[in-house]
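Researcher: Next entry in the queue.
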Amino acid sequence: MGMGSGGGDGGMLSEINVTPFVDVMLVLLIIFMVTAPMMVQGVEIDLPNSEAPPLTGADDQIVLGIDESGNLYINETSYDVEEMARKLKAIHEANPDAAVFVKADGSIPYQQVMDVMALAKTAGIGKVGLVTESGE
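Model: Structure for this entry, 136 residues:
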């Protein structure tokens, strides 16, 4: 009358204990959550130049341009501020998920770039990006 192991063949039953693994992963998650916001702040950027390769995108991109004289453009067509605001509102109504890209001359004051971005945001366009020249 011996005690059986239940397996019948006398082999060992092994299980992996994942508790230490889960503990380590939770600690790493907390560390990354605390340090990620600190890595974003204090980053110096130069908007007109970029070393990044160009992004591939749709051919029907909407580009808001500002030349060195401060003239405003939507895809090569010149507009004044009021016309641009109306046009951007119409673009948003036609396509609520549309994204626009701001392309400004490097000599333009940052305030003018922000004013054009504000026009897009006021029109309801939620996705606004900046276009830079490749530094190559």
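Model: The helical segments are 19-40, 81-94, 110-122.
Researcher: Noted, moving on.
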